[in-house]
Write a structure and sequence with these properties.
The chain has no helices and nine strands.
């Protein structure tokens, strides 16, 4: 399995609510991912809500997200960890975004963003613990 998943391609221009492509994660060793949301551009008086949803079959998606990233108003990067190691029934994931616009100006919201997931590697069983502290 690829260690990187692009749930929302970089510099995707969003003008309405939408869903990203689905990805099969059934062969993931750890089922734990570092999520990086990058907002490259936006207009004033709007917000972006991004969440990640799961599915057992790639067709029916959970109404409740597996992870909801913090609401975004400005350009920048946000990182969060998605750990679905205990949700073994989940075989597919995809991103969902919702745009909210208020105030005056252009009637439609607009964000340029991307969401990339990197699988967190398994920890080695040989990782030194407290008893491996060097002595003089």
């Amino acid at each position: 399995m690829s260690t990187k998943l692009t749930l929302i391609p970089a510099n995707t221009k969003m003008a309405s609510n939408g869903d990203g492509a689905s990805f099969d994660i059934s062969s993931s060793a750890t089922r734990t991912f570092l999520c990086l949301l990058t907002v490259a551009d936006q207009i004033e008086q709007e917000s972006l809500d991004v969440s990640i949803h799961g599915s057992t079959d790639g067709t029916t998606w959970s109404p409740k997200p597996l992870l909801k990233l913090p609401q975004q108003f400005y350009r920048g990067h946000t990182k969060m960890v998605l750990d679905i190691s205990l949700r073994t029934e989940i075989k597919f994931i995809r991103a969902r975004w919702e745009l909210i616009r208020w105030g005056r100006g252009a009637p439609l919201p607009m964000f340029v963003a991307g969401l990339e997931l990197t699988e967190v590697p398994q920890m080695s069983r040989e990782t030194p613990g407290r008893s491996a502290v060097a002595t003089r």
